[in-house]
Amino acid sequence: MTRRQHFVIILILGTLSTISPFSIDMYLPSFPAIAKDLRTSISQVQLSLTAYLVGISVGQILYGPLLDRYGRKLPLYAGLVIYILASVGCAVSTSIETLILMRLLQALGGCVGLVAAQALVRDIFPVTEIAQVFSLLILVVAVSPMIAPTVGGYATVAFGWHSIFLILAAITVLILVSIYYVLPDGKQPDASLSLRPKAVLSSFLTVLKQPQFLTYAVASGVATSAPFAYISGSPDVFMNIYKVSERQYGWIFAFLAIALIAPTQLNRIFLKRFNSEQIIYTTLIYQSVVGLLLVLGTWAGWYGQYGLIIMLFLFLCGQGLTGPNASALSLAPFVRHTGSAAALMGSFRMGFGAVVSGAVSVLHNHTAIPMVGMMTFCVVSGLLILLFGQRAIRYRREQAGIDEPFTEAIL
C-alpha cells in the first residue's frame, strides 16, 4: 500500500466515522431554538440526543453480524441511505416527539459507519499497526467537534435549525459516493455465517468469552461515555447558566475539541515506549484525579466560566488516549468475528453514553454538577472495571503459560 493510498483510506474511514459525531455535535447550539420552535424545554430536546445514542447502541449490534455475513459495503450502503432519509425527516419535524423518533431512525442508519470503519481497519491493516491507525482515525474524527458546533451555530442563526439536518444529509451523500468509488471492499462475504438468532447469539457469546475483549470494551465503554455527559449538559450550562450565544458556544466547543485531538498524536509517540495496556491504566488514573477536582471545585464555587472551561479541557485530554488503545486491545484477538466484536464494542460505548446522557437530563438542576458529576463517575467506574478485569486477563495468561507482557503477546 502506497503512502497516498494509506492516507486516502484513513481519510475515508475517518469521515465515515464522523457521521455520528457530526450528528451529535452539529445541532447542540440549536437546542434553545428547537425548544422554542417546537414549544418544549431544553431538557426535552436533550432526549432527542438520548434517543440518538440509544439508536447507535442498538444499531451497532444489528450491523455486526450483517457486516460479517454480507461483507462490509452492502450493509454500509443500506445504513447510509436510511440515515439520509431520516435526516430529511428530522428537518421537517414539527413536534419534539417526531424529532425524537427521526433521531432514533437516523442513528439506526448512521451507526453502520462506526462499526464498518473499525472492522475495515482490522481487515486492511496489520494487527501491529491497529493502535496507530485508530489514533489517526480519531484525529480525523476529533476535527468534527471543532467544526460541527461552529457550523451548526452559524447555520441556526442564518437559516434556522432545520438546515442542520439537510447539511448532514448532503455530507453523507458525498461520503457514500467516496465509499463506492474509492474504499477497498475489506473482508468478503462469508456464507458460512448464519443470521439465525441462535447463530448470531453464539457469535456474540464467542466474543464475550474473550477476557481481553470484555475487559477493555466494557472499561473503555464506561470511561469514554464521559464526553456524552459533557455533550448533553454543556448547552444548558453555557447558554443558560453563563448566557453565551449560539455562536460563542460553538467556539467554546471547538476549543475544547483540541483536548481530543492533541493526545491522539501523543499516543503515537507513547506507543513507541509503552504498550496500550499501560497507557490506558495511567490515563484513567489521571482523569479520575482531574474529575474529582472538577466536581469538588464546581460544588465549592471555585470555577467561573473560564475556570470550568480549563478544567474540562484538562479532563477531556484523556479521551484521546483511552479510545484508540482500548479499541486495538479489544479487536486484536479476532479475525473471523471482527464485525461482531466491533459492534459489541461500539454498542457498549454508545449504550453507556445513552444512559449517561439521560442521567444528566434527569438530574438537571440548573447547575453544572450533574454534568461534571457524571463525567467523573464514568472514568472512576472505568478504572475500577479495568483493575478487576486485568486480574482475569493475568489469570488466563498464567494458565496458558505466557510470560511476555500481555499486550505484546497479543499484538
TrEMBL record:
Keywords: Cell membrane, Membrane, Transmembrane, Transmembrane helix, Transport. The keyword DNA repair does not apply. The chain crosses the membrane at residues 45-67, 74-94, 100-121, 133-155, 161-183, 213-231, 251-271, 283-302, 308-329, 341-362, 368-389. The keyword Cell membrane applies. Residues 9-393 form the Major facilitator superfamily (MFS) profile domain. Belongs to the major facilitator superfamily. Bcr/CmlA family. It holds the Pfam family MFS_1. It is found in: Cell membrane. It is a multi-pass membrane protein. InterPro entries: Efflux_drug-R_Bcr/CmlA (IPR004812), MFS (IPR011701), MFS_dom (IPR020846), MFS_trans_sf (IPR036259). This is Bcr/CflA family multidrug efflux MFS transporter.
